[in-house]
Design brief:
By secondary structure, this protein is mainly α. It has 14 helices and no strands. The chain has helices at residues 3-11, 14-27, 36-59, 63-92, 96-107, 111-123, 132-151, 157-165, 168-195, 199-215, 218-249, 254-265, 271-279, 285-316. The longest helix is centred in the C-terminal third of the chain and has 32 residues, at 218-249. The protein is globular, with a radius of gyration of 18 Å.
């Protein structure tokens, strides 16, 4: 599958199309609106399901096999939100809440970009390590926690840490991760009819709502448009190169380092928006959704993944 086919496959997915439908509905001044209770229910469902599935993957992976790649991934999970936050403050000139929201998106990971990188690596003849989905789970949560801490540090770390860790978004993600890790595959079998198959339907509705919210706040985007493009592409390249390098140091194959690089370069538009909408409701969705969905996501699909693969090949020689 080439880059254009990957781009077409992802941009024509029901989730992405629903996002643009929501934006179009707001542009046409439609009376379409989500009840607050529905938005809250969708957020709770998505966050717990993401954490739960990640925990199940953790329960199936031997620790000895995972140790070095996991340490590299956890380092990325701490570094990426910090660099995203500092760059957002300096380059975009946004406030603490908007910078924290952007950091959460660039500290978390895009599952679709992960799948696209995995498909690409397999398509060019590599066999990436089978435990890579576990690294997605490890990268998903720390980035969001660190970003929320940065956004809420006004009263000091001692005050912000309990607030973030007991906030419902982190409780759902971490709690779901622990429930999945302890219950394992047997637990998943009992609830997958609710947490696996309906997941993408719930996600499609969630992105429809996000599209409406993002379109309603476009005025703020006009102030930082070109800089947002530089922000989204620059962070993807820096994080992607770092991910490939750390993957190489951790002993991953060329295919595995390529996928880890793409994961590090990606920006979330599933877990992070749900967590940010709950924890930082004052942050502007036009900034973080446009950066992650309209800039970083297509860049990685078309140019980023081949670049990370070329770097992994160069390091692997």
């Amino acid at each position: 599958m080439d880059a254009l086919e990957l781009l077409k496959l992802n941009l024509l997915s029901p989730m992405v199309l629903a996002f643009f439908l929501g934006a179009l509905a707001r542009g046409l001044r439609s009376d379409l609106a989500f009840p607050e209770a529905l938005y809250t229910a969708l957020s709770i469902y998505l966050l717990f399901a993401i954490g739960f599935k990640g925990g199940v993957e953790l329960s199936k992976t031997p620790l000895a096999l995972l140790l070095l790649p996991a340490l590299a991934t956890l380092f990325l999970g701490l570094f990426r939100p910090l660099s995203g936050y500092l760059l957002a403050r300096r380059l975009l000139g946004v406030g603490r809440e908007d910078a924290g929201a952007l950091a959460a998106h660039y500290g978390s990971v895009s599952a679709v970009t992960f799948l696209a990188a995995l498909t690409f690596a397999q398509g060019v003849g590599h066999r990436p390590e089978g435990f890579l989905p576990t690294l997605v789970a490890l990268l998903e949560v720390p980035g969001i926690v660190v970003a929320l801490l940065l956004a809420k540090r006004k009263g000091g770390l001692g005050e912000a840490l309990p607030e973030v860790l007991t906030g419902k978004s982190v409780v759902l993600l971490l709690g779901g991760l622990l429930v999945g890790a302890f219950s394992g595959e047997a637990g998943m079998e009992r609830v997958k009819a609710f947490f696996v198959d309906p997941f993408y339907g719930a996600l499609t509705l969630f992105l429809l709502d996000l599209g409406m919210v993002a379109a309603s706040r476009l005025s703020a985007l006009r102030r930082v448009g070109p800089r947002l493009l530089l922000f989204g592409v620059g962070l993807a390249l820096v994080h992607g190169a770092l991910g490939v390098y750390l993957g190489h140091l951790a002993g991953l194959s060329v295919g595995g380092a390529t996928v880890l690089g793409a994961m590090a370069a990606s920006a979330s538009y599933i877990a992070a928006p749900a967590a940010v909408r709950l924890a930082l409701p004052e942050a502007n969705p036009s900034l973080y959704l446009t950066a992650s969905l309209a800039v970083t996501f297509p860049f990685n699909l078309v140019l980023g993944i081949p670049l990370y693969h070329a770097l992994a090949q160069a390091l692997g020689r």
